[in-house]
Design brief:
Length: about 230
Amino acid sequence: MDAFVSHDSGRTPTLDQPQLLSRHEDGAELAMALWRFGSPLLALSSAPYGGGWGERHWILAAQVVHGYHRTDPADHLAGLARDVGLDGPGIGMLTAVDVRLVTASREDGVAAAATVGLTDPCWAAAADAAATAPATGSPGTAGTVNIVAVLGRRLSGAALVNAVMTVTEAKSQALWEAGFAGTGTPSDAVAVLCAPSGPAEAFGGPRSRYGSRLARAVHRAVLDGSRRAGTR
């Protein structure tokens, strides 16, 4: 059964458990998690496929092998989307984490889900970052934190940008509380989606009405995932 994200302005969206798929690639059986939207949502994302701004119909999170070093992640994800029959604009993310281990959290008007891999945590302003960073958009080593957040109310353009910042701040707080030495990994991706119509919230920061809920939902999802990652 397909997993749907439903939205109704102001109500808590339903970020259901994704449809789980599998494929054989690079000598391994790899999982994929697929969320389909009942109707398109407005998105802002840093994902290698479908990143940027616009309406999106689905999100595909695909597991890759450890040590993945392809430099064409967008093309790779486009092929995977075709293979499972996806059409229309969507978002694709890659991670070496088993995407069946997604952690989720909800708060009034907000739902968040995360896949958390932390074998390669780093500080954003590390002095040697340029020398050690993987190719842009590439998962590099196994550690990748991918976050999807859905808000049941429309955000203004500025508020949606601010919401992406809020997600990143909440992620970094969760990693610090879980005892990881870093603000994230070199290849983290985020997608924040919201209702495409209706009255728009003007603010998305961590002290705004919806931004505060977003921060708490993301914090819980990432903290749960990071604790799980720390036990493996």
